[in-house]
Amino acid sequence: xxxxxxxxxRTQLTARKRDEVPLKSSNGTTHPVATDIQKxxxxxxxxxxxxxxxxxxxxxxxxxxxxxxxxxxxxxxxxDIVDPNISLLRNSIKESFEKMADLHLELMxxxxxxxxxxxxx
Length: 121
Fold this sequence. Notes:
The protein is mainly alpha-helical. It contains three helices and no strands.
């Protein structure tokens, strides 16, 4: 899945900027609600950036599988092997990539929703 590990994903989602400056009013006082809004916005932006990295990584892997499984692709090397384990392995690989494709669609949908909401902020 590219260079993004689940640990990196969780770490980035929960990371906070150390130099974060809360929103202040014109008289210099910090508003707790404004600070929460700023933190939520920062978290959302980080999430959007990470989801785009995951979308790119999944896209790359899915394109590689399409080439692998296409007629004349590398999967053809296994077609003349009669071993039932090879058939199980091919099915397992196919299922894994189908799950990746589903995740890719979910992330694309989430990214679209974030883009629509961002235009309203």
